[in-house]
Amino acid sequence: MAITKWITYQKERFPVIKYAILVSAFTVSGLALSYLLTGSNFALRPQMFVVAFTVTFLTFFQLRVADEHKDFDFDAKHHPERPVQRGLVTLKGLRRLAIAAGFIQFFAVMSLRVSLLVPLGLAWFYMWLMTNEFFAGDWLRKRPILYMITHMSILFFTDLFITSCHFMVWGLKPPMALVFFLGTSFFLGTVIEVGRKIRSPQEETTARDTYSMLWGRETAVKVWISAIGMSAIFAIITASQIHFEAVALTVLSLMLALCAFCGKKFLLKSTPSTSKSLDTLSGIWTLTTYLIIGLVPLLISTI
Questions:
Q1: How much helix, strand and coil, in percent to the nearest 5, is found in the chain?
Q2: I want to staple 185 with a disulfide (CB 3.0 to 4.6 A). Which of 17, 155, 270, 275 is the partner?
């Protein structure tokens, strides 16, 4: 059945539940921050969350579709087991879904405020540049750090859209403190990106498309820990803007220690199990950070 192949595809390439949880935390965090920074006179509405979540979730799906297109030849050579390469789904089918997602995003935005088409258009434009690898694909691929930075920068535009669903709807100027939220999101994206591409020797392939292969396992883990540390710094600064830095510092310091321990454990015993733990921790760290600078202080402020 047609639905079965798409269920299989999402399990392998775009796990819906995982993305839904992270995007929900991401969305609530951004909206809560905008609300807490602009005062309680400008209320949060359920529709703001629905629109921000829908557009952001579909943006991440569109990014996956874009990756399938630009990486098709590379994956055909090095990852023939992937859904598109083995014929489970087609690029044409994915493209139709991505276009349909675009229409849903457009009408979702129109249902809330027409001016939100501006941040949505900026996100679409940057995604188009990413799909074309900024017209310097070969040059960027030889510089993995710059490649990662240019691709993680899409988070600036998703952040802008999410927060715009509050401050722009109310006709407010964006709070300058949201700059720290942008920094937090950028490094959280880096944590997830690096964490999912640190593998044990048994998992490496001829593709050489993991950071553990490109940089060596020790350097890759150091970069991962550094990204966690930088995201913690920006998160604590963000929390300080809403007088929640003490809690953020305590929680994130304990989590950072756990991540450092697991990173060291992986280096001492590099197995599929310990590499998987880094990927899992990346998600937990990201979820915790978003909750601690958004939803938790919002809930406490309402008590």
A1: 80, 0, 20
A2: 155
